[in-house]
Each structure stands twice: as structure tokens, then as C-alpha cells.
Amino acid sequence: MDTLLSGQLLFAALVSGSLYALVALGLNLVYGTLRLLNIAHGDLVMIGAYTAFGAFSLFHLPPVISVFLAAAVCAGLGWAVYEGLFRRLLANPTLAKRVEANSLILFYGISVILQNVVAMTFTASSRGYQYLDTVITWGGVSMTGNRLLTLIVASAVCFGTLLFLRHTLFGWSLRAVIERREAAQVVGVNLNRVQLITICAGFAAAGVAGTLVSMTEQITPFMGFPFTIVAFVVIIVGGLGNIGAGVLAGFCLGLVETYGIALTSPGYRSILIYGLFVAVLLIRPEGVFSKAVRS
Amino acid sequence: MKGLILGLVCVAGAAAVPMLGNPYYTGVIFQLAMWIALAQSWSMLSATTGYLSLGHAVFYGIGAYVCVLLTGSVPFAVTLIAGALAAGIFAAAIGLPVLRVRGPYFVILTYGLSELVRHVVMRIESALGSFGRMIFIVPPIEVLMWCMLGLATLACLGAWAIRHSTFGAGLSAIREDEVAAETVGVPVTRLKLLAFVASAIIPGAVGGLALLRTSYFEPGQAFDPVISFTIVTMALVGGTETVRGPILGAVALTLLSELLWSNLPQLYMVVLGSTLIGFILFVPRGVSGLVDQIAGRR
């Protein structure tokens, strides 16, 4: 019981929660504005992680600098994917009719390509580097510097994005596109521009998350898929396209997961995540935290 | 009719392959028949109704699991039938709540369910102290190949029969507009459930046969989500509008994997991904549609 009440466990839960919220934020933005199921999202986390790893081992760039590089690389991929693939998909009426199925398959193709191109470049073995791994004790809670940095950066990006969506003109138009796509166009929102910027931003968020992951964990070309799943669990719980609820759900998942494992054993982690995922989809597919039912 | 004769000739030719005396070719035919059976079964639900299942590995895995549990105590044909039945019963049990969920939610739900079952089985197996089960006495590869060929034929005939029946017409109505179909009196819930069960049975038997081929069971492999993705890829590359689509897709990708997989697995995956993207964007009706187009132009 003592371990359950310790600040140590709460800190661990918040670190993973903030990371989940950040990974899911990108996925949710892309789903909300483009209605595309990006199952390659975790692979963008992987690309971000490898960018940070490459920058650290080749040029000795610390992650606090390479995080911008990782974000830029992923945003560039977002631009390429949108201009190269989805403009074509959304413009063709026969393809757009089955946009969900088609986007799923397209992203599966992208995912497979990204994983294997990285595996061919860096080999499939796991990589890692040391950065800020000294232990700090603060208020009875011991933590490594890189985990604290993960919590700070991930939370800052999440809440910064929420503030941006609430208080800027672009944020308003983005939310308008999520809520009423046609109506947004009628009142003069440039749909194409919003979609392009959102996909770049969503991918960049994954790149930032990848940089954070690379500081604390070993990375491999095939590390992305679990992140995709976690992100899907989070945005399903929060409600697809519901950005604020998604961030909240990310932190909740971190708490549920960490305390769930503390109460049972790490062997139940996947069952817990998938069980939650299936249960939410069966019982409340519109999301636990969403107020209105979307048609 | 021409298609049926061509199909029968192909099946007869494939059945005679063991006479070449090279077990490699028999193995290739086994793989071809396996993917045709899986892709065709998938199309019974997903191509007809538009409910895209991304979790067909669960039926394959259940079949394999039931088969490995029963092997040794009953003849091998019985283990396969039990595998098929178990997969069908599982589909019937989860069908009603699962098929209420539509569109993108259905896609990720089937995927999540398959992964959930995978992790539960992994947990059960490790609780039993088992880290992979070996099977020591398996039927010869020719027998397994003939069985698989039989399953592939059955799947193709089944898919054909569904598409040319009122049942199939009802399923198409669900794909086009489910609410309208329900309004005009199509029993959508019952039809969807039947299609779901139909598309689960053969993959159960296929899983059992594939297990006997490798003679090794490991839940992580038997429920591998790559199986689900491969099935969807094959069906979409082949084209989902006709019965021959999934066959063509399965043949094309199995041969591609035979050529590249053993030497350059990573390059194979890159080629697979690029093929998929190319087909979605430029050949949305699949190889089958491409064949029609070329034939029509002449």
C-alpha cells in the first residue's frame, strides 16, 4: 500500500501519461481535421527517436537542440505525405468515398516503408545513448533528469497546443474544421491550408515525442507500433477529434497503466491496454469524455 | 463458367505438384493456397459489407491454438474441424456487439480484439509454464498441401456462392447504405453476423494446418497482426469487386515474397509497402480491375 501512495509512482505515471498525451495529440489532430486513420503515427515517433539518436552520435547535438530537427524532419514527412498522397486520394471521388479504408492501407504502406528503410540504414539492433541520466532527489522523489525533462516538455507542448487552439485565429479555424467541415469552408476557412499545417504539426508532435523517448529508452526500427496503439487507445477514450479530452485521457491512461501494473504485474500491461481499448469501443465508441454524440 | 473451369484446372495442376518431387514447390503451393483461403474468407465479410476487418489473425490463431491443444488425443482432421468450429463460435459470440460498431471504429476494434486475444493467450500460456509448444508427429507435407488446397477451393466457391445469392445482395445493400437497407426490410444484423461467422470458419482450419506445417506453436506468432494486414493487402491489391480479385492478389504477393523474402526481407517489405500505396492510388480496382481494363481495350 505504501508504494501505491508514494510520489515515486505518481511521478512515473505522470511521465508516461504526458508522453501518451503528446503522442495521441498528434494523431488526434490529424484524425480530426483530415479524417485519416494514421496507423504510421508510432513510426513517426520512431523517426523522431532516430533523428535525435543520429544527431547525438554523429554531431554530438544534445536532444534539447535535436528536438527541433526531429520535429522538422517529421513535419517534412507530413508535407510529403499530404502533397504526394492525400491530395490525390481526397481529390478522386471514387477513392474519397472509401477514404477511411484507403487511408488505413496507405498509412500501413508508409509504416512498413519507414520501418524497413530505417532498419536497412541503421540495422535492426536496438540503439541508445546517455543524456541527463543523473538521479535528482526532490521532495523525497528520486528521478533522472531526462524523465523530468520528458514530463516538462511533453506537458508544455500539449498545453501550449491547447492554448493555441483556444486563443488564435488559426486555432479557431482548425477547431472549426474538426467540428463542421463544410460550414468552416463556407465561412472562408482555407481547408487545404489548415489540413496541410495540421498534418505537419501532428507529425512534428510525434517527432518531439520520439526525441523524448530516445533519451530514456532503447530504440529500434520497430518500436513504433506500441505507440500507435497507445495513441489510439487514448483518442478513443477521449473521443476521436476531441483534442482537449484526448490530452486528459493521455494522462489518465498513464495513471491507469502505472497503478494497474503496480497492483498486478507487468505481464498484464498489454491486456490492460487492449482490454480498455475494446471495452471503450464496444460501450461508448464516441469516447468516454466527449459530451456530444458525433454523427 | 469459364472462370470455374480455369479454376478447376489450376487446382488440379496444383494438386499434382508433389509429383515433381521437389518439396520446395509443394511448400510454395501450400503458401499460395493458404493466402488464397484467408483472403477469400476475409472478402466474404469485408468485401461484401464494407466492414473492413483488421483482425482476421484472431481466427487463424484460435484455430492454431485449438489444434495444438487437441493434437495427440484426436486424429488430425478432427483437430482442424475443431479449429474451424472454435473460430466460428468465437465469431458468433463476439459478433453482435462488435458488428454494431461501424466505419473506422470497426476497423480498429477488430484489430484491438485480435491483439487482446493474443495477449490473453500469451498470458495463459506463460501461466501454464509453456513457452512454445512443439508437435512431433505431423502428416506429410503433401497431405497438408492437399488439405490447404481443399480449403482454398472451398473458400473460393463459398465466396462465389455468397456473391450470387440473395444473402450476398443483402450484404451489398449493407455496404451501400445500411440504414436504407434496414428500412426496406433487409435483416441487417442477422446477415452481418452470418457473414462474420462465415468469414471466420475457414481461417480457423487454415490456422490449424499452418500450425501442423511449422509443427511449433507460439501465441505471439499464431496471432501475429502482420497476418491480418497481409490478408487485407492481398485482397485490396487483387481487387474486392470480384471473386477472382483476392485470388490474384494472394498469388501476386505470395510469389513476390517467395522471390524477395528469403534474401532481402527488408527490401521485400519496402516493395510491399510501395506496391500497396501504388495500388490504392493508381489501381483502386486492383489487379482484377486492371485485367478487365486491358481486356476491354482490345
Distinctive features:
heterodimer; A: 295 residues; mainly alpha; ABC transporter involved in vitamin B12 uptake, BtuC; 77% helix; B: 298 residues; 1% strand
Structure write-up:
The complex is a heterodimer of chains A (295) and B (298). Chain A is mainly alpha-helical and 295 residues long. The mean pLDDT of chain A is 86. In chain A, strands 1-2 form a two-stranded antiparallel ribbon. Chain A has one domain: ABC transporter involved in vitamin B12 uptake, BtuC. In chain A, α2 packs antiparallel against α10. Chain A is globular and about 55 Å long. Helices cover 77% and strands 3% of the residues of chain A. Chain B is mostly helical and 298 residues long. Chain B has a single domain, classed as ABC transporter involved in vitamin B12 uptake, BtuC (Orthogonal Bundle), CATH 1.10.3470. Chain B contains 14 helices and two strands. A two-stranded antiparallel sheet of chain B has the order 1-2. In chain B, α2 packs parallel to α6. The mean pLDDT of chain B is 89. Classes of the chains: A mainly alpha (295), B mainly alpha (298). Chains A and B meet through α4, α6, α11 and α13 of A and α5, α11 and α13 of B.
Topology:
The complex is a heterodimer of chains A (295) and B (298).
Chain A lengths: L1 H4 L1 H28 L6 H19 L3 H29 L1 H5 L1 H24 L12 E4 L2 E4 H23 L1 H11 L1 H6 L4 H26 L7 H15 L4 H21 L5 H15 L12
Antiparallel strand pairs in A: 1-2
Helix pairs in contact in A: 2-7, 2-10, 2-11, 2-12, 3-4, 3-6, 3-10, 3-11, 4-6, 4-10, 7-8, 7-10, 8-10, 11-12, 11-13
Chain B lengths: L1 H14 L7 H27 L7 H14 L5 H24 L3 H25 L5 E2 L6 H23 L2 H11 L1 H6 L4 H27 L1 E2 L1 H4 L2 H14 L5 H17 L4 H18 L3 H12 L1
Antiparallel strand pairs in B: 1-2
Helix pairs in contact in B: 2-6, 2-9, 2-11, 2-12, 3-4, 3-5, 3-9, 4-9, 6-9, 7-9, 11-12, 11-14, 12-13, 12-14
Mean pLDDT of chain B: 89
Fraction of residues in H or I helices of chain A: over 70%
Give the topology string of chain A: H per helix, E per strand.
HHHHHHEEHHHHHHH
* Order of neighbouring strands in the sheet with most strands of chain B: 1-2
